[in-house]
Amino acid sequence: MNGDQVEVFPVDDDLFEETFCVNYVYKFCGEEVKINQAFSANLGVAAPVWESALQLCHFFEDNKVPLKGKKVIELGAGTGIVGILAARLGADVTITDLPLAIPQLQSNVSANTPPGGWRSAVPTVVPLSWGQDQKNFPSDWDLVLGADIVYLPDTFPLLLETVTHLCKDGAVAYLSSKMRREHRTPRFFDSDLPQKFHVELVQHDAEQNINIYQATMRRDV
Questions:
Q1: Where are the alpha helices (DSSP H) in 73-153?
Q2: Taking a C-beta distance cutoff of 8 angstroms, is the pair 167, 159 a contact?
Q3: Do 162 and 178 touch, CB atoms closer than 8 A?
Q4: What is the pLDDT of residues 27-69, one digit of tens each?
Q5: What is the pTM of this model?
Q6: pLDDT digits (tens, 9 = 90+) for 124-139
Q7: Residue 176 to residue 124: CA distance in whole angstroms
Q8: β-strand partners of 197
Q9: Which residues contact 102 (CB under 8 A, 6 or more apart)?
């Protein structure tokens, strides 16, 4: 399934005027991940599986990124596909988004419970509002993940503040994003994030206009 049904990442609440659900099974790293996408005006852009999330999952598979035993947090998870895959591969995962997305996330986590139970802990699903309550979360993560969460310029300082707190004990952040110039996405990775992080472009998909970045905290600021 292609996550780029539209060119511009929609941000209005009327994106989906009718309510309907789509179920799809994705396969990565030998795991099947079942995702329910509850398209509705309430969920808006949190409902679909976006292509950037799929590319991040493929990146983990293609590069054999070690996830077993890692402490992982996903930001702006939407459907939760990235965090759920990490948990299926043995990571201890916390999946976060705004409160309105929590029921969809809880449903998808439940639907992906392995027959023999989770390899590590059951994924934790909790709300996290950037710039407001990130300090309620620890900073001892191994990985901080985000897919298509950089599209509203007003939230860039809040996202930077949140990622900085979560990564201050040495976490590596992987951020996958459609590079939407109309939403100033390149500015975040070229100017905002480097204020606090060493930023490396680790994958570029020219056809889909999607980049994956690896970021680690700078110690010289």
A1: 81-88, 102-111
A2: no
A3: no
A4: 999 999 999 877 655 655 655 788 999 999 999 999 999 999 9
A5: 0.87
A6: 999 999 999 999 999 9
A7: 22
A8: 217
A9: 125, 126, 127
